[in-house]
Amino acid sequence: MATPRSHVLESMLTRRKHGTQTEVLAAAIHCLAMVAVVSLSARVPAGVKNPPYERLTAARGRATHGRDAHAAKRRLFGRPACGIVDRVDRIRIHIERAIAGFLLLTLLCRAAAGQAAEKPTLTVFAAAGATDAMTALCAEYEKRAGVRVDRAFGASSTLARQIEAGARADVFVSASPEWMDYLQRRDLLSPGTRRDLAVNRLVLVVPASTDAEWAVPAEQHVEGGQWCTQRTLRAIEGRVAIGDPVHVPAGMYAKQALEHFGCYEALTPRIVNCSTVREALGLVEAGQVAAGIVYRSDAWFSKRVRMVEVFPERSHERIAFQIAALRTGRPEAEGFIRFLTSPQAGTVLASYGFDAPDGTRQAEPVRSVPVRGYPETPRGVTTNGWLPTSEEWTTILTSMKVATGCVVVLAVPGILLAYVLARRDFWGKAVVETLVHAPLVIPPVVTGYLLLVLLGNNGLAGRWLHRTLGIELAFTLNGAVVAAAVMALPLMVRSVRVAMELVDRRLEEAARTLGAGPVRTFWRVTIPLSLPGIVSGLILAFARSLGEFGATAVFVGSIEGQGRTLPLAIYSHLQTASGEASVVRLVGFSIAISLIAVAASELLARRAKGSMRANHAT
């Protein structure tokens, strides 16, 4: 007779042959869930209501008679010592419901993503200053060539460092020739593919609602008038947002322009250094600062800022966006570069505030209307409706995969580590505890950097893994799971350890007197009594991985379609002029899932605490 478990295995094998990777993952999780449920419920007889300590006491009393010793051990170990058996049933039901809900959510995400067939994929690393223009150009190229183009936007310095560390990108768009030179010196660029893409200008922007006398619209100035620029800069009241001059090209150009007009020293106490130029623009749009210095292409379509100055070209170095294919990239990258340097692509770039590489304008665009045929919003983003788009469902599914993978990775080692810390005293225990809890106090960015140094493709251990075993962790979905697991490990271990410390040791000692070995005692007594704390720790690890940002941003990066989780997607959409609706949807979903997970963890922790008190009372 076929069992439910056999049906699940048969379904899993069939999906493995004909289904997608997501369906195989869902079937595997379902199979494991069924096995876990059967294991929990197989040996629980109905109607037994004796507390565990009374069962053990009775068993020990009857064990004094030689004939009943074996029967006492069988009665003790024939069912898990989980307190009242009814509580075990309730926990099992909650687990079944949680697994069913997760499987349903996985299927909904998979259906919404709608990826019927895999297309050839290109990965483009582009400077944040070209976010809107590159989004439109990539969408058009996808329609023409039938090639999916995944995009990752950020500071040119950050992207160049990630490429050096082994990130798999095909095309690099830099806002500064300096970082393109950086990669070329390391022989990471494909020969003959480097060229100028467009030229940008530096502008001073203020919130659209500003009515200060000095905030005169740029159209009323003579472009390049030095007297007007100096007067405007000196009249600014409040903070000024710019890119970080240490590594952000837009910040370097802004510092050069301010020094040219002799205003940098006076404004330094009020300058807000941002990680990207789009972050600086976001602060101005939100009214958090009085002004900002950004690229003209950034402020071109924003309705919440107003350009008051265009800095003359002589006040800073030439702002040339360059493009090149990477040596390890796919052959299709050269075709993509040819498209980006075509006259039609030049028209699109001009519509977003860029100039041609020779400094001329191909056409004078209208700021309020994008070029016909090119979307103003990123791919998969809609301005109407509250339901997530297909691209956002893909991001949500990626986050769920990472969170589930984190739980699977931490389950066994986290429980064993918590048991060792709760039950054993050994030399160096304080060092182990310090290392386990270190991710709680070390900045997540530092943790991500250490993972990159250790497990990156050029790292201490990552190089051997990549070259010998073909295992690649950095800038992949597996790397996101590793980063989330490292950050969630302290929460998982702490929750399980507290639950195990609350277990009455007399129960374990009684099991030992009946002949149970350490492993059997651990599996039949310690684990069932600690089950609420274990489930609570796993839920906390799941919730923590959903909110992981710093370590994942450094170790994995925000590569669309590969490792972009909810926090990374939210941060990326904040850098775009049309990403507000996506931010609201993703933030709402992230908050809902996190609150549900934390509430479930607190509920299970309270139940565990009440159960332990009841056991001690008996």
Describe the structure.
The protein is 58% helix and 9% strand. It is α/β, with parallel strands linked by helices and 618 residues long. It folds into three domains: 121-200 and 320-351, 3-Layer(aba) Sandwich (D-Maltodextrin-Binding Protein, domain 2); 202-315, 3-Layer(aba) Sandwich (D-Maltodextrin-Binding Protein, domain 2); 389-618, MetI-like (MetI-like fold, Orthogonal Bundle), CATH 1.10.3720.10. The protein has a five-stranded mixed β-sheet with strand order 2-1-3-10-4. Strands 7-6-8-5-9 form a five-stranded mixed β-sheet, with helices on both faces. Strand 1, helix 6 (131-145) and strand 2 (148-154) form a beta-alpha-beta unit. Helix 2 runs antiparallel to helix 5. The protein is elongated and about 85 Å long. The model is unreliable at 1-85, 112-117, 218-227 and 362-384 (pLDDT under 50).
Short summary:
The chain is an alpha/beta fold. It is built from 26 helices and 10 strands.
Strand order of the largest sheet: 2-1-3-10-4
Class of the largest domain in CATH? Mainly Alpha
Shape: elongated
* Biggest β-sheet strands, sense, barrel: 5 strands, mixed
The CATH homologous superfamily of the largest domain: MetI-like
Q: How far do the termini sit from each other?
A: 44 Å
CATH architecture of the largest domain: Orthogonal Bundle
Residue stretches low in confidence (pLDDT < 50, at least 5 long) are: 1-85, 112-117, 218-227, 362-384
Helix content: 55-70%
- The helix-and-strand class reads alpha/beta
Overall number of domains: 3
* Tally of alpha and pi helices: 26
pLDDT averaged residue by residue: 75
By CATH, the topology of the largest domain is MetI-like fold
How large is the radius of gyration?
A: 30 Å
Portion of residues in beta strands equals: 5-15%
| DSSP strand count | 10
